[in-house]
Design brief:
Helix content: 55-70%
Oligomer: single chain
Strand content: 5-15%
Number of helices: 6
Structural class: alpha+beta
Radius of gyration: 19 Å
Largest sheet: 2 strands, antiparallel
Length: 168
């Protein structure tokens, strides 16, 4: 993939102009790839697959949870999530228990080891991001800080149904 030059290209949309979706997609992709690669280099202990890290994050925010609820949040098939959870149970990161609200169902929760792994992963990523941000000039750091609320809102909009049920 060739890097596109930095640009302030804006595309007209209903309600005003928005940043070029292609540039934003590329930037997010490159950030994720660079962060993932740098963490594996700087912190070689980090071997947890991203799919499992994302499940730890979901369970860190919404626990206990049924497998079907986790699958819906992650937009994955329940069988995929079940397989990942099975691996994580074997690794001691999550535990499966009876759902107290419906004894026929089960829920998964983070174990102490899962919480520790998630905290270590988060701390390592924050340290790496802090180091990268320190290499930027004040104007770039300010631009990123100013963009954070809008990026959080964008992530929330991306989490909404794409079937046209919400018109934005």
């Amino acid at each position: 993939m060739s890097a596109r030059p930095h640009s302030d290209v804006r595309v007209p949309r209903r309600g005003g102009e928005v940043p070029d979706a292609g540039l934003l997609t590329e930037a997010v992709t490159r950030l994720r790839r660079a962060l993932r690669a740098s963490i594996r280099t700087d912190y070689p202990w980090e071997t947890l697959p991203m799919a499992q890290v994302e499940l730890l994050q979901v369970l860190g925010e919404h626990s206990p949870a049924r497998v079907s609820d986790v699958a819906a949040r992650q937009r994955l098939a329940p069988s995929t999530v079940s397989g990942l959870i099975g691996q994580m149970i074997s690794a001691g990161l999550v535990a499966r228990d009876i759902d107290p609200a419906d004894r026929r169902a089960s829920v998964v929760t983070l174990t102490a080891a899962g919480r520790e792994q998630l905290a270590a992963w988060t701390t390592a990523h924050e340290r790496r991001m802090d180091a990268a941000l320190a290499g930027l000039d004040d104007a770039d750091r300010a631009a990123i800080a100013n963009a954070l609320p809008a990026l959080v809102q964008l992530a929330e909009h991306l989490g909404e149904p794409a079937d046209g049920a919400t018109d934005r």
